[in-house]
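Pipeline run #58 for the internal structure catalog. This entry was flagged by the ingest filter as a single-chain record with no existing model, so it goes straight to prediction. Upstream metadata was stripped on purpose; only the residue string is passed forward. Reviewer on rotation: M.T. Logging verbosity set to normal.
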Amino acid sequence: MKTQDIELFHLVADCQSFTQAANISDLPVANVSRRIKLLEEEIGFLLFQRTTRQLRITDSGQLFYNRTRALLVQLNETMQHLQGAQSELRGRLRIQLFPDSNLLLPALQRYQKRNPGVTFDLVSSDRELDLVENGFDLGVRIGELKDSSMVARRLGILRRLVVASPSYLETHGHPETPWHLPNHNCILFRMPNGLIDDHWQVDKESRVKVSGDYIVNQQSMIDELVLSGHGIAFQPSILAAPLIQSGELVQLFEHSDEQGEPIWLVYPNRQGVSRLVSDFVDYIMEEARLDPAFYHFL
């Protein structure tokens, strides 16, 4: 019985799909199906019930999954130790990011410089994908968490500024207080969790309901709309600051450094998280703790 085939079985079980598992593992679907069938013949019982529409793990398959999960982790840790790999992490980290997450790349590159045997598989999506089903090790989430089964570590704060272009303000006037924002055209952002961000927490006292004629899920589109004078935007501070300094945008109100929405690093709550995932999580959390600019990285 090959360890790689057991690992492939776990991937198929997590994805509940031969096709999805094949895409993640970069293997032909026929190869995945054949290896699972050979594994079933070797152990003497079915791991999955197959129909034309559905793949469902059997009771025996679920028991096999539960008993082998911790064993696989322990085996990998032991092999790394015996091979003298305690000081050198190797492997691939598959991470789901939200759109326009380029600001995380320097931190990832620093980690990779320390651990050249590590590769990253980064997937950007405007919605929260199921981490287990899609084969992710980690994901980044903004705001209120919907899935309580995930392990969540608070990574930072999404701190934003209300901004507009000089041309917009010249045409439509400058809102004197946050409570005047409902009288203006505001560019709305659809969060990765699917919610529309139409209640702007401008400061501790002001949470204002706004509206506008554009709802977008890409930061680059908000940039283009606000710079063209189309409306007022609630921009990540680290992106807005250079444009404010250059005079292309105007900050409308003062903001508290601690005002914002939480950013979470989440990962599946499995028994026996790999040493690579554990080390990377510790590294990112330390980066956030030591560097205030990173903590408010958006």
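catalog note: The domain at 3-82 is CATH 1.10.10.10 (Arc Repressor Mutant, subunit A).
catalog note: The longest strand covers residues 150-158.
status: ready for reviewer M.T.
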